[in-house]
Every structure is written in structure tokens, then in C-alpha cells.
User: Fold these one by one.
Assistant:
Number 1:
Amino acid sequence: GNSLLRDGMNLVSYEYVACQNKEFPGVLVLSEFAGAAQSLGAGAILSNPYNVNELSSAIAYALKMSDQERQQRHRQNFMHVKVHTAQAWGETFISELHDTHIEAALRTMHIPPKLDTSLVTDSYRRSKSRLVVMGYNATLTTSANPKAQSNRQFDQIRTLTQVSAEVKEYLRAIVARENTEVLVVSGSERYKLERIFEGVEGVWLAAENGIFLKPPRKDWSLVVENINLEWMESVQLVFDYFCERTPRSYVDTRETSLVWNCKYADIDFGRNQMRDMLQHLWTGSISNAQVEILRGAKSVEARPLGVTKGGAVQRIMQVIANDTGIRPDFIFCAGHFMPRDEDIFTYFDKPEEELMEGLAPLASTFEGVPATITTCTVGRKHSLAKNHLKGSGEIAELLNLFIT
């Protein structure tokens, strides 16, 4: 028994539960003021030590308790002790610490104002040399509403995310103008981007978060070198494990990254599964590998350590400047990016600062600061961008304004 009047963290009750014979267990009589009462109270008999009669009744009840009830109470407490180990506590602490870090980062981001499309359009039309940098997913794409597609199979719903024919036509018209370059940055695979933008001549494509680059009418080349991918098999096993146990979730296996997506799963269950997955990845053996685990709103991405869209775009800008000789006086960058990738906005908004050590800032790459630089987040309220648009529909309208 434990009749403490005041208690903090006391392990005696846990040790008592752990050493019992499961066939003939003892009964734990616990003070309601003990710290363990919150965790072992389900299987223990709680009592108020200030009330002598209540305490004596609890002891008497424990002595007369049937074997069946003893075993049932012991099972409850033993399972708690077995599961909630020091290791589990440490993993939970680290997981919540990561959550706090992410939440703090989001709080430092401002809520940008709505983009003044007329002002941007006027700047675009007055400019003599233009550079347009676009994200892909949720920026140029439109996706299906799974509720409205209930008669379709899940695999069919997944394939309904696409770039509309109108957006492709807008991009074709933009790149057809002299001294105009368009770059599309995506986390998707090379073959997927090449297939989607087939027929849109003149667009630069950056796949796998900018690791691979395809100049217009040329083959793919490697932008970010010395990528360590030894972690992929281990992470793939974890993603597959949770995919099998989360209906309507799926795994995208790419050349240099993995994405587990639960956007079509039950919201609450998907969120709980994602939290368990992150706890496992952040605290398990994989945590020591050269891999970065990123949490999205409804996804978890694993990518090589240190790879961001901002860092990759900084390298790509150098390639574009050298290959085309362009010196833009208008730059527009828009996308729906994960917080880790919003350094792409910082790169453009602070053209004279070095984003990644050893790589030239924007002003050095283009031999001067462009007259107009506009950054715009898509569908995300808190952002490092200076402006926002609600969704891909408004992006399409803006691209149309550029060419009319």
C-alpha cells in the first residue's frame, strides 16, 4: 500500500506492479495524492490518507478481493507499466519537443496580405526581362474532392490531381515571350514532371525538390551532388507499415525521397497515425541517419539531409543565368511549400544575402537587384512570403492576366 500525503515522482508503486505473480497478484492500495494515482489508478484502490476510516476500508476490501478481480486489476496496471517505459517517455518528450519547435517556427511567420494582382500584372507588362518561379502541387494543379468522387476507386481518386489545359496554355504563351524564363519546382519524380509538361516547350523543370534540373529541350542533369540515400530502405519499411494500417493512405516512392500521404484518410485517425510515425522516425535508429523527416499538414516526407527548395533554386538560378544570359528586372515566385522549403521566399526577398554558405546571393547571380521581386504563398496563411493567394484557381487567373 501507499498512503503518501504528498508525492512527486515515486517508482515504488510501479516496481510493486512489475514484480507480482500474474496468477496470484497482490493488490495496490494507493493514496489519491500520489503521483502514480494518475497512471495506476485504474487498477489500484485509491484512498484518502487523511481519512483513516476510508483507508482502513480500502485495505479490508483488498484483503477480501476475489482472485478474478485481483488478476483483472493487475493486468491493467501491468500493461501500463510495460508500455510506459523510460524509453517511451523519452520518445514522447522528443516528439513533443519537435512539435514545439515547428509550432514556434510557424508563430514567427506573418500572415501576408492578399496579392494585388493588378499591381503585379502592371509590373510584369512594363518589364523587359522576366523570371517566373512556380511550385507545382496545389499551385499549378487542381485536385479531386474525394467526397464528390465516392463512386470511384481510391487509386482513381489519387490520379485526379492534374494541371489543366488552360494553365499549360498560359505557360506556353508566357515562355514564348522574348527574355522570359519559367521554372517549375516540384518534389515529384523526373518522369512524372516530364510527362505532365509534355508539349509545354521552354519551361525549366526542377524535380525531387530541385535535385534534378531539366533545361528547355535538354536532358536532365544533377544539381545537388553527393546525396546519401542509405536511409531509404529503412524509412520505406516504416512508411509501408503505417500505410497498411491507415486506410486510404499511400506512399510515394521517389528517386531521392519518400512521402507518406494521408490526405484521403479519416482526419482524426490519419493525424494520430502521423504522430505515431513521427515519434518512431524522430527517436528510432533512423534518427541518426543522413535523412530529414518533415511533417506536412497531411503528409510526412523523408528527404536527404540539408536539401531544401530554396538551396536548390539558388544553384538553379546560377545555371539559368549562365545558360541564358538573362538579367531579369521582374521576378515572381509563388508556391504552396512546406515550412522547411519556404527558404525559397527568403532567397528572393533578400537578394543581397547569402542563403547557403558558398553559393552566390541573387544579386550576384544576376549582376544586380531586379526592380520588382514578388513572393506569394498559395493556400497557406502563415508564411515567409510577402503575399498570398487562396488557391491554384487564383494562380491560373494571374497567369492569364500576364498574357492578356
Number 2:
Amino acid sequence: MGTDSLRSKFLLSLLLSCATPCLSSRYRGFKMSALEKARSIPVVGDSTVLVGPGLFSEIPKDIKNKFPKTSKFVIVSDKTVYGLYGDKLLEGCKAQGLNTIAYQITPGEKSKCRKVKAEVEDFMLENRCLRDTLVIALGGGVVGDLAGFVAATYLRGVPVVQIPTSVMAMVDSSVGGKTAINVPAGKNLIGAFHQPRVVYADMLLLKTLTEKQVKEGLAEAVKMGCIRNAGLFDYMEKNAEKILKQDSEALAEVIYTAIKGKADVVAQDEKEKGLRSTLNFGHTIGHAVEALEKKEVLYHGECVAIGMVHEMAVLADMGHLDAKHVDRITECLKAYNLPTDIPEELKVEDMMKKMKIDKKNKNGQIRITCVQGIGKSLPDPIPIDEGAVSKYLKSLVNGGS
């Protein structure tokens, strides 16, 4: 071996021996932030969902970076959620130099109404919020829908970000820009499409939820698996115990996959002209159950679970799918301790009236998502015969006549 070759090897060895300690000292102790580790899901336009644990504490700084021209930030939350996370978010925003105010509503579906929407708007007007205002929705589906609708209409529209604190809000209501309030005629009948600029889905915020609150949100994930993703359904079928116990890996997989599924649909049909309507599987019968007085309090997801089972049964009667799929989804929902029976005190004629004003209906016909098997559905809801549905329901509900 020549002298030049030996000299080159020596110099290379010397350089590496010097560089390695420098490199290791530079990167020793380096830790990625929760935002850097989060999985990002694009939705429509500049709307994005960030999914990962530990995001919450980093939100104020991220908001400051993403909205440099915003002069005022309005946190909208309910009193229960605000008691858990509100002050921390408010203080975090102020520590970043953000001019931030907060408004708390009474928890529960009754707050998703015209009166409370006007109260939030009046609060913003009194505090001189202008078009360079950002609304921050901190809470579950009620807060997200209400705050989103406020943002959609305030001064003809200001941006909103969503920080969902329930499984239901994370996998469904916070994603895709649907905002609404309830009116006496039914749920979500007055609203607007208004995409959140960012949705921060931090699974650590779910730790304070009861089992009932967790499982009702998981019903929407089962729904996504049923209509579009057989792999998700299989996973939830096999891992029910782990998911219910909020095993971090299992729950993260379900939430990410369900959000990704919804984002894919919204990207194809933002304004619900066809395909997006299929995401309302279980909601035709489910909303009717939810809207009527019952002996037991049932959450939205629990009513959707009931709706899925019986809409699939109607589809099986119509010849659109094998009845074995009805049994399969029933058993899967039961594994999550979700109800599958229509409350016996409900009257068929009352349920039919509610179903007739469902948003999916066209030309006066009741329409439902046509599931053809686990993970497979038609791209547009189909009309169903009211007489057949009424007959089916009367066979189940003692209150029918």
C-alpha cells in the first residue's frame, strides 16, 4: 500500500474521530416535540388534523406560529371541560403573548341552540372581536358544533381550530367542517360547512372520560369500519378489551384510522352531495331514537349503534346484504357494551315522523346508507319503503300500533 493511500486513511480516521464526539454532543438529549411526532392528516384545502399524545401543551405556541396576523383569540368551552383544561390553555396562550378571552357554556346537548349561539356572539361583540379573530373550540361535539357555527357566521366568517376532548369529537364531529345547532324540529338542521384550520387530536385528553363516554365515540369508529374499512372493523372486533381500557397503542390506531377514513370522504365530497351522506349510516333510525323521550339517557353514539343494527336489518330484509353481517355488527357493538335494541317505550309513528325530516332524504323519501357487507357500501344513500320500515319497527317496539 502506497504512502499517499496510508496518509489518506489516517486523515479520514482523524476526521471521523473528531467529528463523532461533536455530532453526538450536538444531538445528545435531542427530543422531538409532540407536534413534530404527530401524524398529520390533510382534509380539505388548508384544513389539517394532527393526531398524537401530548399535543395540548404545545397548542398555544403552534397557534401563534400559524396565525401571526390574528389579534384576538376566543376559547369556547363548556364548564366541565374548562374546569379540566381551560385555564391551562388560557394561560398558555397569554404566555405566548396572545390576546385571549374565554367563554363557558353549560354542558350538554341543550346548549347547542340558537339562544346560546347568540350569547357567544354577543360576548364576542362586547369584547370587540373583529375579523382577525380566531375561535378555539375546546370540548366535545356540542362545543365543536356550536363554536364552529359561531365562527362560520360571525362577521360572515372567522377561522376556527378544534381541540376535541371526547372520542366522538375526535373521530367524527371535529373533522370535516360540519357545524350546526339543534332546533325543535330536529338535530343539526341549522348550520354551515366551515372547515377548521387545524384539529388537534390529543389522546391524553381522553383520560378523564367515563366508559360510557368512551364507548359512545367508539360507535362512530365501528361505523367507519362497517361502511368503508373492513380492516378497521376487524381490528376493533379483535381488540375490544384493549381499546375500551384505552390501551395507548390500540386506541391511537383506531382514532387515526377512523379520522383518516373520514378525511378521505370529506376530500371527495366536502358539501355532502352524495358520498359524504353515507357517513350518516345508523343516523336515520339513530337520530329518531335520540330525539324522543326515553326512560334511559342514551348518548349520540349509543343511539347510532342502535341505528346501525336496525338499518342493516332493514337492508337485509330488502335483499341488499346477507343477514350474517347484521349478527356480526351486533356482536361487535355488544363487545363495547353499546346498546343494540330500540327502547320499547318508543312509538313507531313518532320515530317515523323524525325519520321523515332526516337531512339525507330527497323528494320526500327516507334514504339510508346501503351497506353491502362489512367495509363495503354504495356511494350514495338509497330510498327505502316507509311501509316496510314501519312494519319492521312495529315488530320490535311494543309501543307501536
Number 3:
Amino acid sequence: PEKTIELSPPKMADEESKKLTAALNVMRRMAPSTIENSLAGLCELTPNLTDDLLNNVDQPLKVEMDEAAQKKFITCDYNRDGDSFRSPWSNKYFPEADSEALYPSKYLRQLEVDANAIFDVYRKLYFEGGSYSSVYFFSIEGSSDEKKGFGACWLIHKDVDSTEEDLKKGWWDSTHVFQVSHVKGETYEYKLTSTVMISMVMEDSKLGSCDLSGSMNKQKSETLTLSKTKGTNHLVNMGTMIEKMDDRIRAIIMEIYFSKTRQIVDGMRLTSGARNRQMDKIAASLKDALKQSKK
């Protein structure tokens, strides 16, 4: 049987919806390095929301071994059937699933095989050692013809080697989910939702413990065409969008997580002269504000 994924969240009663919204707002403020513990705590507090929380909260990606292909693959909701996960390399479930396990159709499986080969090269070029990639294609709800509508999930997980003494652990997760729908002729709409999670835990005797973690979610939609003469197909169109999105998110993370953090730390550790000048500016500003209030 073909695998069908429901992309839109189910409708809920108003009270349950408010509870779910509040829970998701809490999870959005949790550091990715502690998200699994935080999610387990929320599920314990609101067991009736467990399924919705698990379906809506992005968790750090896990890696499993494909014993048949002797290659590691990434697990997620899009290759899961019960407690088993399907490998994109051998198309087998680990641990072995029952006879009712879901598989992609022949058409989607061929796209999946080609996408994994291409994305593996992309991973080696951009993420180098300690990284893994997986791509999964699936049918989507409401699409009678899979050639005119399908979904795809492109994943990358990288573990950062603790080569430095103060770096305890670190990882990077990229999740790119597409919903592809036919418009007309050879034109298709590609809706992309990208999520990046990053975590670096540093610790030494002078610094203490520092957890630099965060996540980012971006969406983009493009209408593109397939052309044999120009060499464009679904994989080219999706791959180009992923590469642009990765560059965009990476630039934002560099600005927010590193440049801004450095600016804050530098502001906390001013030299004596710089600190005095800063205090003089603050005093002058307060004096001006006081004069304005007396007028």
C-alpha cells in the first residue's frame, strides 16, 4: 500500500485547541538541547494532547543503521510505521515491520532513490564528516494522482566533533518538507517548510556551562516548470529551493547566534575606561530626559 500523510492538523474543540496552542507556545521557548525532556513533561501533564504534541513539535533527529545496506539513515514521522522506520537505502523497515507496513509507490520510490543519491553529495559538500542525510517521498491527502501531487521530506543531521576541550557536544538538524501540487501543463507549485535546529554545549573550569541552542522555521512557495530542454525536473527544482533556503537560514543564524551573542558579551565585559564612558552616556541621557519632563 502507498503511504499517505495528512499535512493539515486535525480540527479540535475550542478548549482543547487553546490548551494545544499554549503547550506549543511553551515548546517554542524551550532550548532544542532540552526539548525531549520538556516534551515528555508536557505529555505527562496533558496526556490527551500527546498525539497532537508529538505531531506538531519538532524534535532532534535520530540516526539508525540499515543492516541490509550497511548505511545509516535518519528517522522521522515520514518514514515511521509503528515502532519501525523505513530506510531510504534498502526500502526496508528496521526493526522489521508487519505485512501491513506502508511503502511508497513505484513512481515515488524512483524519485526517492535519485533524491537520496543527489542529497548525499550535497551533504558531503556542505556538511562534511559526522553528517547524515535521508530523503522520503510520500502521497498526500486529497491527491488522486501522485504525479500531480505528492510530498517530500529532505533531512540532514550533523554531529559536531568535540575536538576542542571546552566543546562538550553539538549538533545541527535540517528538515525541509515539500508539498508539490500540479498547476497546469508542466507547471507545479512547490510549498517548502524548513526547520533548522542547532545546539552547542560548552563547558570548562573558567566559563562554566554555556548552552547555545535555538531553532528557526521558514516557509517559501514557488511556481516552477519542468523542462527537458532546460534540464529541470522535480529534483532540480526542490534542490535549488533547499540550497537557497539553507544559505538564507545559515546567514541569519550567523548574525543572531554568533554576532549578537558576541555583542552582548562584549557589552558585559567593558574595560574600565569604556565602562566609564558608557555610564557617562547613560547619565547624560537621563539628565536630558529629566529636563524634558520639567518643561
